[in-house]
Amino acid sequence: MAWLPQASDELGFFEICGISPTRTTFQDITTDAEKHSIITKELFKTSQSISFTFEIESIVRLHPQTWHLSLTPWKTIPGHQVAFADLHKVTSNPASFSNDLAETESQVLDNFKVGSVPYVGALFQRIDVPPGSVTPMHRMLTLGYGVIASGEAELVLDSGDIRVVKQGDTVVERASMHQWKNLSRTEWLRVIWVLIPILPVEVGGKKLEEEFKG
């Protein structure tokens, strides 16, 4: 199930839309790195203090020299409140298989901040949110394709629109102000994202920026 809300948030940033590598133009996105770090550090400040350890799944890939299938090794992530796992990223469009594998497959998190989205390319990411956790209202300057892998949550827009999303549901997030509420008191929420950089966006003559309302 995909969400297409009746009421728009600003420019209708939550909507079903398509993207074609042949039609999409990417430019350098002017962002404040320090502000991004503050945003991502504070984003899940209200999360419960639950410590955990889990492993990132191996990724099947073709070796660029031999073109033989192989698996990347399992990686264990130390416990913290919320886990951000950058599973893979590409820094070109179309993607190049000639890139150093270490540059694309060693993007596993430190559990304290969201990984940076490349100016050109895409970021494949997984986020785990603790039971009962509520995030601040926040905005990221990306086009995000999200799949609820497990759990149940309320997705809330600053317009007041609320939609309950469950396992298997999909979301297209277009740089809108939003927050997540994990509705379970016992189960974690897991969301899988593919994040793509966007061109600068202006609303009412004001350039959108990454932000959070903590």
Automatic annotation (TrEMBL):
<protein>
    <submittedName>
        <fullName>Uncharacterized protein</fullName>
    </submittedName>
</protein>
<dbReference type="InterPro" id="IPR047142">
    <property type="entry name" value="OryJ/VirC-like"/>
</dbReference>
<dbReference type="InterPro" id="IPR011051">
    <property type="entry name" value="RmlC_Cupin_sf"/>
</dbReference>
<dbReference type="InterPro" id="IPR014710">
    <property type="entry name" value="RmlC-like_jellyroll"/>
</dbReference>
